[in-house]
Structures are given as C-alpha cells and as structure tokens.
Design a protein that fits this description.
By secondary structure, the chain is of the alpha+beta class. It has 14 helices and twelve strands. Helices cover 40% and strands 17% of the residues. Residues 312-333 are annotated as: Disordered.
Length: 333
C-alpha cells in the first residue's frame, strides 16, 4: 500500500518525491534511509529522492521545485529565470544550475539550485509546463532582464521565441512591467526596440515577408493561423492556408525551426497533415531573397493544380519580380 502511494505521487512528478511526501505516504525517516541503502530510493537534492537512478530534465526540474519547498505545487515555489526559459522552450539547453523563485522568505539552499525571492506571484505570473509550475514567458523575460550579465541580444532572442510560440502576446511585456513597476528588469526591457513588444498578427519577421509575397499573387486570400487537425487527431495552426486546395504555406524561419527537436516536430506535423490530405509548402528567407519569382510561381501552380486539378497554362505570370529571366544561346534554341 505504501509503495503504491509513493508510486502514484512519483508518476505525477516525473519520478521524484520529497521527504515530506514520503512521510505522508507512511514511511519513517529510518525507512527512507533504509531504502536509500538498498538502492530503492536515490537522493537527488537534499530532501528529494528519485525512484530510479536516472532522471530526465523534467524530473530534475521537479526535484528543484520540491527541494525549495514546493511539495504542494501551488504556485508559491516555481521554476524561474533561465530554468523557466528552458522549460518553456524559449532557449535551447539546460542551465548549469536550476533557478527557483519562492514567494516569501522561507526556503533552503543547496548546490545546483539558485533561489530567488519574490514578494508576490499572482496568477498572471505563473504557468504550468508539463505540470511543473514556472513563471510565465513575459515574467521569465522580465526576471532574466534583471540579471546583470544578460545582453540585449539575449533578451531579443527570448522575446522573439516567446512571440513565435505564442507565449508572449503583443502587449505581454507591457502588462508584466505595468504590474511590477519596481522590478529591476524593467529598465533593460525598455531599451529594446519597441516594435518587438508591439508586433501584431504574425509570429515571426519571416511571416511578414511571406504575407507580403502572397498578397501580390493572383490567388484567393489565404486564411491566417487556420486551426487544422491531422490524421492522428493532433491539432495545429497553419501560417497561411487555402482550404479549397488543402494547401498550407509555412514561414520556415531559423529562429522558430532551427533546433533539431523543432525540425523533427515540423516534419512530423507535415506528415500528419499530409495523411489528412493537406500539402505543406515551407518557405525560407533564402528562397524569398534569391528566387522570389520562382517561389511565387510555384505557389500559384500548386494551388491551381490542387484546387482545379489542372496546371496553369502560363507560367511566370505572377507579376513578382526579382528573378532574372532565363536566356538561351543560339545553340540552345
């Protein structure tokens, strides 16, 4: 019975439990020590144990929150700063030390965990990522801005990634700064390009370029951010879509799709949509710059073929300029 209760708690927390939770399940401190000696429990941080000898990144994040006293996962102890950025996929990799913010003055210190104090964290500041309480993306960027070593370039990358993933709304930073007017990170954020905090309607700068290209084509207007469901039932949103042709155009920017995990996720999503009858065309910045007219012709031809079943009779009629017309030598004619 005790083992079943412990296993139930650990399943919800990626394989980790705190000493308080073990005691609540019915173990004594002596029994906990005996299980450690018998390799049935594995110490992770002071007062936190794993049921298996190895933990993934999410399990380690849980351990950091539990170590800081967040047994109840009630939002008074949350992952924050660079740890929250990693949990929210705003940045690649895992920070060398986990950052945890605690509301109030209680909390312990241990090697590998950096504790921060906050007077308050309201519901607008707390998000759950895979069940782990973290600061929201806007609050995370604000907290990271307060770190003296953080550069403006790092903040811009975090902000763009948060906007791309739809974790930071257009007025997200303005809102968090207004709610925390004395936060030490606010000044550095105000030095950023104002356009970064007021982007409307698009997820990435490349999407703006794609939108400009599509607006000049002899096609029906594409639907922006159209919700789609793949063959497996997985839901997603298409950057630009034509339901009549079951055609999708995606702005395939390096910022949002450059990591290996993001690359694989995009291809898996494309395959899922293809199985449901959708064709996905991905446009890169290089295509728009070096072969803009050819790219435009390709989109028009693909739409025409899928919408009517007939290829366009005339090519190169999109009106888009930028590609030199091919020339033939006398020997080629």
């Amino acid at each position: 019975m005790i083992d079943a209760r412990i296993a139930s708690v650990a399943r919800r927390q990626r394989g980790v439990v705190s000493i308080r939770q073990l005691l609540a399940c019915g173990l004594s401190r002596r029994a906990v020590g005996a299980r450690v000696q018998a390799a049935r429990l594995f110490p992770v941080l002071r007062g936190v144990y794993a049921l298996a000898p190895h933990l993934d990144d999410r399990g380690l994040r849980y351990a950091a929150v539990l170590h800081a006293g967040g047994d109840d996962l009630d939002g008074t102890v949350v992952l924050s700063h660079w740890s929250a950025a990693a949990a929210l996929d705003l940045t690649a990799g895992v920070p060398p030390r986990h950052h945890v913010t605690i509301v109030g003055v209680n909390g312990r210190r241990a090697s590998g965990v950096v504790l921060h104090r906050a007077r308050r964290l309201d519901g607008s500041d707390v998000h759950r990522s895979g069940g782990i309480p973290t600061t929201t993306a806007p609050r995370t960027v604000l907290d990271i801005a307060a770190i003296p070593s953080t550069s403006a370039d790092q903040l811009q990358r975090l902000l763009r990634e948060g906007q791309y993933r739809r974790l930071i709304p257009p007025d997200g930073l303005l809102d968090v700064v207004a709610r925390h007017p004395r936060h030490p990170g606010r000044r550095k954020l105000r030095l950023l390009d104002p356009r970064l905090t007021a982007r409307q309607g698009t997820e990435s700068p490349l999407e703006d370029e794609v939108a400009a290209l599509l607006e000049g084509l002899p096609l029906p207007p594409a639907i922006r951010q159209l919700p789609l469901t793949g063959a497996t039932g997985r839901r997603c949103r298409a950057d630009f879509a034509w339901p009549d042709a079951r055609l999708v155009v995606e702005a395939d920017g390096r910022d949002g799709h450059g990591g290996s995990a993001a690359f694989e996720a995009d291809r898996e999503r494309d395959a899922d949509l293809a199985a449901a009858g959708w064709l996905v065309l991905r446009l890169t910045a290089a295509q728009l710059r070096s072969s803009r007219a050819a790219t435009a012709d390709r989109i028009v031809a693909t739409h025409r073929l899928r919408a009517t079943g007939r290829a366009p009779a005339v090519t190169g009629a999109t009106g888009v300029t930028g590609d030199p017309a091919p020339t033939r030598t006398p020997a080629e004619t």
